[in-house]
Amino acid sequence: MPSITLVNSLQCAFQLLGAFASCAPRLRLYQLADITKMPKATTLRFFRSLVELNYVSYDRNSKCDLLSPCVMSFGFVSLSEIDLREVAIPFMEQPLKVADQSVRQKRLGKGDMEAGGLREKMASNCVQLASLIGGGE
Hints:
Helix 2 (29-36) crosses helix 3. The model is unreliable at 101-109 (pLDDT under 50). The protein folds into 2 domains: 8-72, Arc Repressor Mutant, subunit A; 82-134, no CATH class. By secondary structure, the chain is mainly alpha-helical. The chain has helices spanning 8-19, 29-36, 40-52, 73-80, 84-98, 117-134, and strands spanning 26-27, 56-59, 64-67. Helices cover 54% and strands 7% of the residues.
């Protein structure tokens, strides 16, 4: 099978867009250059194009750059064809992994609710999960 020739400018643009992640949704230009390992001048050139095309915007309050809602248009078509559970499960598992817990699917029997211990454990996990999702301590 022949190898695919990549268009460098397209690859650079997607590297910049891909640098924004849920763990780093707001970045400064120097951080983008560091993450993508592109020269700062190249990063600036591509970044200005992405701003002009409305894929990235600047937040004056945080003085950082972030993806604009225009980027979501890439996902709308594919998401409409995917079962919501397939999309949601990895995101639901992530906070639990961060909290050093694992997601387990288990059928509960009558003996599993001894003295409310399981109910308390589940409530504790829900509070921890809500705290992680809400960004609280």
